[in-house]
């Protein structure tokens, strides 16, 4: 069976990515990173239980606190309050860790090349676009070129972002199809349990389920209505 | 004055790169990484004294032990003996950390974007070619494209590998011109002091100085003759 390194934060996007990789015939080597973010422990627990769930051949956990050292961000700096979601803003949100996905993908490619894995999976999606430049298909294409040129001649590692052109709603739909245990996944930038329901991460996740007419199985402090109701036509 | 993040290992290539960056009008923000390699402490001391020497505005030190976790290498694995230099081999040497430069450059770009620095300098050179795929100009070009697409719209960070087309001898010559304090730089993969004189790192360094007819100011256990004598024509 062919191996793939899958970047698994413990949230719904990466959980669905794990199941997508399995569905495509890969054995998922979990790569979970902690980078000093407030929600590190909760995300680790979710990622680990998911690895047990799918009987992953490997769970690689790397501490990447240097990402906090290298760049300021509300995810890593206690002094910056987490903003509520602003759906109308074109600004890069304050949760942005500069060039984060390049760091994560570089680690994943190192692990893949060392293990002879044929692919690296990452769960970025199209609604990250406006905020996170390193979630765009154009970025992944350029990074693929760097991988092709920067690894050994005999190495072939494909960068797979299966949901790069999809919405979060598409991911929720695909995850429900694949039987992803969403109740074991993590949400909420604010590190609250139950999840706050109002930060950017919670807002997008709740909206995705609401658009599908499904109830998100995790607990929320509040469940504001985010979906416009027009897209529950599946 | 414009800032540049410079990847500084503490060896002669990166030391010369620091002076090159200064010569081009940049203030060098030092980024020094320790990744579990045997020579970590010695390299740190050399990098730090160099930062003091040039009055660097910043010395960023990040522990990147995860590179050892992610990939096996003789630089990070005590059980793999360091090979003597094999100048005739086309094989990727066992000191290779898979996709290492992509990891280092990603960190440097994160730091540069967070600080508003305009460039990232790395001291790779042409004689790394046969062994290290991620030292080639083609790799740096592809990585530049990933940087352009993966950072904020208003961010411009140029990847500068000033010696990518040069030999180690060229670097030694340029360093002597720029007044690089080579006596404060580190060499030797074997973590010996004096340097062994026979590992790949020592062999290339000694050869570079011998070709210029100059004496390398650091101490060596032995000083084999590596230069063919035909190229001391400068």
Automatic annotation (TrEMBL), chains A, B:
Superkingdom per UniProt: Archaea
Cofactor entry: Zn(2+)
EC number: 6.3.4.20
Enzyme class: ligase
Pathway this chain belongs to: Purine metabolism; 7-cyano-7-deazaguanine biosynthesis
Keyword entries, A-Z: ATP-binding, Ligase, Metal-binding, Nucleotide-binding, Zinc
Residues that, per the record, bind Zn(2+): 188, 196, 199, 202
Catalysed transformations (reactions): 7-carboxy-7-carbaguanine + NH4(+) + 2 ATP = 7-cyano-7-carbaguanine + 2 AMP + 2 diphosphate + 2 H(+)
Pfam family, one: QueC
Signal peptide: none
Claim: Zinc is one of the keywords in the record: yes
Binding residue positions for ATP: 8-18
Alphabetized GO MF terms: ATP binding; ligase activity, forming carbon-nitrogen bonds; zinc ion binding
Family from the record: Belongs to the QueC family.
Protein name (record): 7-cyano-7-deazaguanine synthase
Gene name of the encoded protein: queC
């Amino acid at each position: 069976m062919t191996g793939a390194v899958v970047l698994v934060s413990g949230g719904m996007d990466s959980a669905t990515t794990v199941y997508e990789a399995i569905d495509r015939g890969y054995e998922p080597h979990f790569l979970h990173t902690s980078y000093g973010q407030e929600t590190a422990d909760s995300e680790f627990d979710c990622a680990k239980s998911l690895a047990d769930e799918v009987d992953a051949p490997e769970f690689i956990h790397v501490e990447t606190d240097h990402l906090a050292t290298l760049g300021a961000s509300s995810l890593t700096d206690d002094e910056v309050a987490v903003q509520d979601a602003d759906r109308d803003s074109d600004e890069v949100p304050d949760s942005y860790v500069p060039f984060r996905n390049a760091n994560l993908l570089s680690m994943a490619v190192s692990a893949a090349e060392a293990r002879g894995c044929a692919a690296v999976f990452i769960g970025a999606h199209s609604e990250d676009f406006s905020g996170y430049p390193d979630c765009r298909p154009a970025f992944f294409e350029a990074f693929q070129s760097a991988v092709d040129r920067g690894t050994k001649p005999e190495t072939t590692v494909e960068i797979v972002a299966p949901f790069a052109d999809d919405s979060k709603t598409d991911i929720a739909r695909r995850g429900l199809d694949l039987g992803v245990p969403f109740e074991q996944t993590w949400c909420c930038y604010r590190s609250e349990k139950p999840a706050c329901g109002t930060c950017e991460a919670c807002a997008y996740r709740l909206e995705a389920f609401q658009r599908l007419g499904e109830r998100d199985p995790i607990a929320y402090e509040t469940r504001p209505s985010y979906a416009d109701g027009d897209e529950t036509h599946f």
